[in-house]
Design brief:
Layout: E1 15-18, H1 25-33, E2 37-42, E3 55-56, E4 59-60, H2 61-66, E5 70-74, H3 80-90, E6 95-98, H4 102-107, H5 112-118, E7 123-128, H6 143-150, H7 171-193, E8 198-202, H8 203-210, H9 212-216, H10 231-238, E9 248-251, E10 254-257, H11 266-281, H12 295-301, H13 306-320, H14 325-335, E11 340-342, H15 345-350, H16 352-357, E12 360-363, E13 366-369
Parallel strand pairs: 1-2, 1-6, 2-5, 6-7, 7-8
Antiparallel strand pairs: 3-4, 9-10, 10-11, 12-13
Helix pairs in contact: 1-7, 6-8, 7-8
Length: 398
C-alpha cells in the first residue's frame, strides 16, 4: 500500500479518539482545527451533542459547529465487541479524550491505565465536572452547577442578590480548552520520554481559573475592591456608571461598551473621551471639564455627588444616540477611545477586519471561524460535521 500524504496542520501526524459527549466536544474540535485526525466515537443513537439546540432544517447547529473536522464511528462501549474495537483503535491513537471518570471507564472494561499499558505512547484525557476524586466527584455537573461551585457567580449577582450566569453554556468549553492545553504539554513530554500520560481536567477548576483575577483581587490587596459592590462601586452603580450594565450604551443600531469610570486609571480614559466629544462634537456640558481622575476624592468630600454622575451619564447617552456602532468604533480607532461595539452574529459576518483576514470559512452548509494555526502559515480546512457512523471503516488500513 502506498503511504498516504501527511495531513496539513500543526498536529497533522497525530490521531485522536474522541469519546467526549456534548460537555467535552470542543476539545476534539480544537484538535481537528490544529490538523489532527479526530475520530468521534458515538454511542448507538448518536452523541448527546446532536440533540442540542439551536436547530436549522432539523439539524443541530451545535453539532454542526463543534463536530466539524471529525469522523464518526458508532460503538456500544457497554458491549464486549465495542470494547474490543475501542482497544484496537486506542492501539493506533496518540490521544484518547473522554468525559468519563476512571471508575466509569473501568466499569466498561476500558481502564485508562490499561489502555496506556497496551499503547505506551497513548495520552488519555478525562474531562469531568468536579475531578476524578474528592467529595464532589460524583455530583451532577450541569453548566450552572459547575459555574456556581466555582464561585465566580457570586460577584456577578443582581442588585437583589440573585446570582447571574452566562446565557450560553460555557463551563465545559473552558475545561475542553484546558484539556487540549494539558494534552499538548503531555505530548511535549512524550517527545522526551517516549511515553504517554493521563491528563485530568475538572470543569469546576477551569471555570474558577477563567475568572481567577476577579476572585483573587481582594486577597492580593486590590485597592477598594469589594465583591459586594460597596464603596466606590456602589456609588458608580447608583449613578448608572462603571462596569456591568453601566458600561452599555444605546446607540442608533444597538449597543456599545464603554466604561465611563473614575479614579487614577479609568478616569484617564474618561478625560480622553470628553476631550474628543468636546473638540469634535461640540460637547460643552460642565462635566466634560471635570478631571475624572480626581472624582473619588471629590465624592468623598461632597464636592461632587451621585446626582452629578447620573447627569453626566444622561449627557453621554444623549450624545451616543446620534451615532451608529460602527461610527463610534471608527472614532475609537482614530482617537484611541476605550470603546467597542457590542456585535451580533450578523455584525461579525460583515465586519471588514474579519473579512480581510478571511476569518470565516465554509464547512458544508455552515460558516465557521477559521481553524487555529492558520496564523502560523499552516492552513487546515474543516470537513462538515459527519453523519452518524459515516466512517465505520475508519483507521482499518492503519
Amino acid at each position: 500500500m502506498q503511504p498516504t500524504e501527511p495531513r496539513p496542520g500543526l498536529l497533522g501526524p497525530y490521531k485522536v479518539l474522541d469519546l467526549a459527549d456534548a460537555r467535552g466536544i470542543l476539545a476534539g474540535h480544537l484538535f481537528a482545527q490544529l490538523g489532527a485526525e479526530v475520530l468521534a466515537i458515538e454511542p448507538p443513537g448518536g452523541s448527546s451533542a446532536r440533540a442540542l439546540p439551536p436547530f436549522a432544517a432539523g439539524e443541530s447547529l451545535f453539532w454542526g459547529a463543534y463536530a466539524a473536522g471529525k469522523s464518526s464511528l458508532v460503538l456500544d462501549l457497554n458491549s464486549a465487541s465495542g470494547q474490543e474495537k475501542l482497544r484496537e483503535l486506542a492501539g493506533q491513537a496518540d490521544f484518547l479524550i473522554g468525559c468519563f471518570a476512571p471508575a466509569q471507564m473501568r466499569e466498561m472494561g476500558l481502564d485508562y491505565a490499561e489502555l496506556r499499558r497496551e499503547n505506551p505512547r497513548l495520552i488519555t484525557v478525562s474531562i469531568t465536572g468536579f475531578g476524578e476524586s474528592g467529595p464532589k466527584a460524583d455530583y451532577q455537573d450541569s453548566d450552572l452547577t459547575v459555574w456556581a461551585a466555582s464561585g465566580v457567580l457570586w460577584p456577578h449577582r443582581a442588585q437583589d442578590g440573585a446570582p447571574l450566569r452566562i446565557s450560553v453554556p460555557q463551563a465545559f468549553h473552558h475545561a475542553a480548552a484546558d484539556a487540549l492545553a494539558g494534552a499538548l504539554v503531555a505530548l511535549y513530554a512524550r517527545h522526551a520520554s517516549g511515553r504517554g500520560q493521563h491528563v485530568s481536567v475538572s470543569a469546576q477548576q477551569s471555570a474558577l481559573l477563567a475568572g481567577f483575577s476577579h476572585q483573587v483581587a481582594p486577597a492580593v490587596g486590590h485597592v477598594d475592591y469589594s465583591t459586594s459592590g460597596g464603596g466606590q462601586g456602589k456609588i458608580m452603580a447608583a449613578a448608572g456608571l462603571g462596569l456591568g450594565p453601566g458600561a452599555k450604551w444605546q446607540v442608533q443600531d444597538g449597543l456599545v461598551e464603554m466604561n465611563l469610570g473614575i479614579g487614577p486609571i479609568s478616569g484617564v480614559f474618561a478625560n480622553h473621551f470628553f476631550a474628543w466629544a468636546k473638540e469634535h462634537h461640540g460637547f460643552d456640558a460642565d462635566f466634560a471639564n471635570w478631571d475624572w481622575r480626581r472624582l473619588p476624592a471629590q465624592l468623598a468630600t461632597g464636592e461632587r455627588s451621585v446626582d452629578d454622575l447620573a447627569r453626566a451619564r444622561a449627557g453621554v447617552a444623549k450624545l451616543f444616540s446620534g451615532f451608529s456602532k460602527m461610527q463610534l468604533f471608527a472614532a475609537a480607532g482614530r482617537y484611541d477611545l476605550k470603546l467597542a461595539p457590542v456585535m451580533t452574529a450578523a455584525d461579525l459576518l460583515q465586519f471588514a477586519q474579519l473579512q480581510e483576514r478571511g476569518y470565516f470559512v465554509e464547512s458544508g452548509s455552515h460558516i465557521l471561524p477559521h481553524a487555529m494555526g492558520t496564523a502560523c502559515g499552516i492552513a487546515t480546512s474543516l470537513s462538515p460535521a459527519p453523519a452518524l457512523d459515516a466512517d465505520s471503516n475508519a483507521w482499518t488500513a492503519a
